[in-house]
């Protein structure tokens, strides 16, 4: 095992897959950071082939101010592959991009931060290479969260964009969001990583995931995976949600209320489609155009 500048590497004596686990791409998503630390401790010297690299806080600038974005105001998850000669977020993005290029598999762990509460999901880009795509499906199944969600492969600037361009199977996971720390998120993330490592025969452990996720959705619609673009607030004000993640909702059901910033007059917000409540805004203060949450159409 080697620890270098916040990057933890566990190597086996036997050749095998190189797995990269990321946390802290956003500085206010804390459960993945804790899960990364505990994953390192749980594996110890048990890796029987290949190597595991864990970066528990990818964006140290954002973490230092407890925010989604770094001190330069940039979102690392929109600015890969970055630039080692530019501002701090772009430097962090350039560093993590190099690690992704050297991996065989990528797991990028997230939450909704302080902004959104999210239904637990394992997601991936719908890669044009069928071998890469099937490996991503296998990783998502192994992780063991109730929703598997494949979305269009076009977004740029992501960690998964780097993986896509280098034909590296990659998933991201989302679960929860605003504090306090949720131990169920930490536990699910540790177990999910152990499951993938076991499926890759890097660990001699039994996996604990069910054979099938509760929901499996693949949607190639452009922008389907862009959460910040969904259900925009019609005005500035205070948002009060009427729904919780995991509920099923019908088109026209009340999503919540926005109280006008000037008059505090209440305006009802209604769901724009049938489906699963995928995520809900957690911060009450809202600007016109900010996302209030989103509904995922479910086919199964």
Rounded mean pLDDT score: 95
Give the helix level as a range of percent: 10-25%
- N-to-C SSE string, H for helix and E for strand: EEEHEHHEEHEHEHEEEEEEEE
Uncertain segments are none
Computed Rg: 19 Å
The shape, in one word, is: globular
* Main pleated-sheet profile: 12 strands, mixed
Number of strands: 16
What structural category characterises the helix and strand content? alpha/beta
Distance between the first and last residues' Cα: 43 Å
**Helical stretch tally:** 6
Describe the model:
By secondary structure, the chain is of the alpha/beta class. It has helices spanning about 30-45, 60-65, 90-100, 130-145, 160-165, 185-200; strands at about 1-5, 5-10, 20, 50-55, 105-110, 115-125, 145-150, 170-175, 215-220, 235-240, 250, 255-260, 265-270, 275-280, 285, 295. Strands 1, 2, 3, 4, 5, 6, 7, 8, 9, 11, 14 and 16 form a 12-stranded mixed beta sheet that branches. The protein has a 4-stranded antiparallel beta sheet with strand order 13-12-10-15, with no helix packed on it. Helix 1 (about 30-45) crosses helix 6 (about 185-200).
Task: Give the secondary structure arrangement, pairings included.
Blueprint: E1 2-4, E2 7-11, E3 18-22, H1 30-43, E4 51-55, H2 60-64, H3 88-101, E5 105-109, E6 116-125, H4 130-143, E7 147-151, H5 159-165, E8 170-176, H6 183-199, E9 215-219, E10 237-241, E11 248-249, E12 254-260, E13 266-270, E14 275-281, E15 285-286, E16 293-296
Parallel strand pairs: 3-4, 3-5, 5-8, 6-7, 7-9
Antiparallel strand pairs: 1-2, 2-4, 6-8, 6-14, 10-12, 10-15, 11-14, 12-13, 14-16
């Amino acid at each position: 095992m080697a620890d270098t500048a916040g990057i933890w590497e566990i190597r086996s004596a036997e050749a095998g897959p190189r797995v990269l686990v990321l946390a802290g791409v956003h500085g206010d998503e804390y459960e993945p950071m804790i899960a990364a630390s505990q994953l390192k401790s749980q594996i110890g010297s048990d890796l029987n082939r290949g190597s595991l690299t864990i970066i528990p806080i990818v964006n140290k600038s954002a973490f230092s101010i407890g925010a989604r974005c770094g001190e330069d105001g940039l979102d690392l998850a929109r600015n890969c592959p970055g630039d080692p000669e530019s501002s701090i977020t772009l430097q962090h993005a350039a560093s993590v991009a190099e690690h992704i290029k050297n991996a065989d598999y990528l797991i990028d762990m997230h939450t909704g931060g302080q902004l959104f509460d999210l239904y637990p999901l394992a997601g991936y880009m719908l890669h044009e290479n069928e071998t890469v795509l099937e490996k991503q499906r296998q990783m998502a199944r192994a992780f063991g969260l109730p929703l598997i969600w494949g979305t269009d492969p076009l977004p740029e600037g992501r960690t998964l964009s780097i993986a896509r361009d280098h034909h590296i199977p990659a998933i991201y996971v989302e679960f929860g969001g605003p504090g306090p720390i949720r131990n169920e998120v930490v536990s699910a993330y540790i177990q999910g990583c152990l499951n993938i490592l076991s499926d890759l025969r890097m660990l001699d452990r039994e996996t604990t995931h069910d054979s099938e996720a509760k929901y499996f959705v693949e949607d190639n619609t452009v922008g389907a995976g862009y959460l910040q673009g969904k259900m925009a607030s019609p005005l500035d004000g205070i948002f009060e949600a009427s729904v919780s993640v995991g509920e099923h909702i019908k088109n026209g059901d009340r999503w919540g209320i926005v109280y006008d910033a000037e008059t505090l007059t209440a305006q009802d917000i209604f769901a724009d489609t049938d489906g699963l409540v995928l995520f809900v805004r957690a911060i009450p203060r809202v600007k016109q155009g900010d996302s209030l949450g989103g509904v995922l159409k479910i086919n199964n």
